[in-house]
Amino acid sequence: MVKKAEYRSGFPEYLPSQRAVELSVLDSLRRTFELHGFASVETSSAEALDRLLQKGETDNEVYVLRRLHAEVADDHSGLGLHFDLTVPLARYVVDNAGQLEFPFRRYQIQKCWRGERPQEGRYREFTQADIDVIGKDTLSFDADVEIAAVMAEALSALPVPPLRLQINNRRLMEGFFLGLGAADPAAAMRAVDKLDKLDPEQVRRLLVDDAGLSPEAADRCLALAAIVAADTSFVQAVRDLGVEHPLLDQGLAELAAVVEAASDVATERVEVVADLRIARGLDYYTGTVFETRMVGWERIGSVCSGGRYDALATDARTTFPGVGISLGVTRLLAPLLTAGVLDASRSVPSAVLVALPDGGSRRACRAVAQQLRARGIPTEVAPDPTKYGRQIRYAQRRGIPFVWFPRAEGTHEVRDIRSGDQEVADPLSWTPPEIDLRPTIRHEELPE
Amino acid sequence: MVKKAEYRSGFPEYLPSQRAVELSVLDSLRRTFELHGFASVETSSAEALDRLLQKGETDNEVYVLRRLHAEVADDHSGLGLHFDLTVPLARYVVDNAGQLEFPFRRYQIQKCWRGERPQEGRYREFTQADIDVIGKDTLSFDADVEIAAVMAEALSALPVPPLRLQINNRRLMEGFFLGLGAADPAAAMRAVDKLDKLDPEQVRRLLVDDAGLSPEAADRCLALAAIVAADTSFVQAVRDLGVEHPLLDQGLAELAAVVEAASDVATERVEVVADLRIARGLDYYTGTVFETRMVGWERIGSVCSGGRYDALATDARTTFPGVGISLGVTRLLAPLLTAGVLDASRSVPSAVLVALPDGGSRRACRAVAQQLRARGIPTEVAPDPTKYGRQIRYAQRRGIPFVWFPRAEGTHEVRDIRSGDQEVADPLSWTPPEIDLRPTIRHEELPE
Question: Staple partner for B251: which of A193, B29, B156, B169, CB 3.0–4.6 Å?
């Protein structure tokens, strides 16, 4: 990661080889989302400030826009930069409801901004990759299953440490609390949500004092929150706690279906678990909730979160329920790139450098390069007709694997500068090995 | 284009099929840039305000960032959103000079912001696609030739009306003015630069009054500015004006080389011309300058501009000369999309919709979809087991060309819903025609 002046901290920038890693990750995400038929959408970076502040949770984290020297009549202080892609999606869906087809399945990969105090995993500018399915009036629960499976598949393809996708269901939790006779299940939810920050004894006290549960009921809540399972065995574990409620039944069935579908596509790189302590702070989730930890990097928090919201947006006539999940691309990658865990095999796309024998052969060298490019081989021409040794070092410093030597007599040779192997080659037919066509991602194992 | 509330005008947003057009254009640009070995870079959206204002030309167009409720001590009013990608590149190069390889060849496709009064072709948020080559201390003139050729090739691949890439050289102009005895060649340059806005007689007066030229010399300047040629014949046309100066000779040779190289890759869709009235307002250009008009859309101004700058950036020890060109992707596309000139064949990536015979077959249908995806075919499963007629209309409304019908007995059929042709198909081998794999771009001819 680039060192930078303090005032710009929180605005991460990558060196070219690091950016190549990010591009490869973004390409991979897009490929998975599009294979599943999700359509790309971008929304404007600016939203009306009153809309951004509706949730009331990020007040002083929003960046307000103001035109320099704006006259009062033309002040844009009513606009701020979006801090996520969910609020803009809700506005976009309402604005364009008449022209969109529902269920509306979109992916959105864009920068977001928050005026947070920067730290590892927290940035002021960061890229999110979201998928959501939005219904009009109704949305089948199968969308929850799909969202989980698509994101699990997308995560499986990434060159990052193993991930753990943790799934829970707020209906399950609410039903459990109601079955225990909780008068204020929302207070119990808020208490359980604090298990990340407080120790169980403190949470137990909150369950008794704030949520009005008996000590025995509070213990059962803590027992519920301790359940983790990589398959549907969690259903029996919950049943064994002896709580009954129709909402609990619905939540258990939903969670089992989502976990099962996501497990179908999970790999050794992405573990899918039912984790019954996951609550998500935000009030608008109503069913399925997701969080994701990177193994060995739990300290940076959840890198991929989301859930079901029965009313993502409403206008005068219509309610738009939705389910979505948001991958924090910068939160995921910036720490790995900074630590040197990930890097690319080269800092340029070029697979071939065409060497320049002398200044007069520049046009001929350009023609050779163009012949290679015509067959999809990224190629650049050496900038100066220096000694070949210097031109080879030009390629080496950038990680370009092949140097092409045009010969006056019209024959050509190409050298793999990693092995030193050199062979006669025809610019109309020579092709590098598939793996050398674009930069590959190097994933260093972390020291234990 | 989406209708939107007035306060958001200038922040264009696309419907999914319009976004598919933009994505296809961005992919095409990236492909060309990478084939030529340009590396992707992104810089942070925010720059120090004093850096953004250094050129002094865009004072009140800059968006200043402020954290809502920022305390004075933590105020971020020192940051603004970048209004182009050149100022950030200069800062990035100096920040990272020790870790970059020079000549540094990068492309950068990012959003920029200006608080301009919105109008056709002018937006408050817009995407630019830049390529630049940056040297350390020196940069061969061949980089100018390369930049022109790469952008001409990139433009040729775009599904837009014909473009005219207009190239000039400020050394040529300056040498011409000096050869005429101009005491203040910069004033003469500024006068010629006004030919877009003023009539020739007014410019002639400026050349006499402000630049101190004789009426006869002013006429020769206007004659120079009137020269346009699609080949190197402009050299003789300039010679015929009878002005001599070493800088003029150098400028003529450079312009001839750039025009020749760019013409090599030009097609009927992109005309390359030497246009000797192109001056570019900005002071920092020192040699080659570029502008680009879209035929029939000249009113939106230049969609792709740039040039040579002998000192893009400097630090205590080093000067970084550069040459670059910047394509206004939003300026190019938003008017075409708004006018309905461009659209995509479908609003989703899906080539296939797998119909759902009944709720119980959802898992089997998902498996079929996954078999198609495994071979790179974007596929979605119908959301509900409604009547097949309704499921086919679901596909039609989105422009999905194929509907897949799983049959209970394990055989399958696929229907091209455009032709109605239906055939037995195997999900492990059936492939749609290559052209149907992704949305195609429709380019409506403009009414004359």
Answer: B169
